Amino acid sequence: MKKIAENxxxxxxxxxxxxxxxxxxxxxxxxxxxxxxxYVNEGSAVEAVFFWHFCGFGYISGNAxxxxxxxxxxxxxxxxxxxxxxxxxxxxxxxAFFRGKEVSMDERVEYSWHQPGxxxxxxxxxxxxxxxxxxxxxxxxxxxxxxxxxxxxxERFLSNGFGYAxxxxxxxxxxxxxxxxxxxxxxxxxxxxxxxxxxxxxALLANQMCEHIVxxxxxxxxxxxxxxxxxxxxxxxxxxxxxxxxxxxxxxx
Length: 253
Prior knowledge:
12 strands, 253 residues, twelve-stranded mixed β-sheet, Aminopeptidase, alpha+beta, 2 domains
């Protein structure tokens, strides 16, 4: 497996756009919006390309050989500078290769957006306010699925991405942001603090994200672990439609 120099990333844009499991995360790397690594097989002809996003998501385009998959498996087990590797694939051959190894497997549900949702969105509760994510407030946004999940720095996020946060005075109650961004798609990440859940804040912020994304001439996309019923409810409420289910492969804990 050979690592590609960053100045050559754009030459792999067609491979990123042809990925069968997901396009926005591979394209975000190839187009230079977000940080990640690109690897190809050794040899004179490129048969497979591996995109490893900053957040840890990995995607394979093309026909990966057993040797190529072995190298990916080694990275999954070892990590790199503390970075995880979560392989997301729609390829049965890739899934078959990893079956029986020291990994766990589950499913990730992918959605596309077609029109505003039919579900009635809540009114903002008294005392809460929505703000765009800015240099002044990004430092107060903490949690797991927040901009730092998929962006290497606040500066890069503020330069290439955007998002909204619901505040209760100085406290962040919920956040929605561009978790992955390409020239034609934006994946939405959301998180609501436990004390503010079941109030519809995720749907309210995600809907605002969709409106912004569409105004940019891009397509909103959404995905979640198959077991995440709350994320599914939010997606359906905001007008998303399920279009795929991918296999998620990660090192067994």
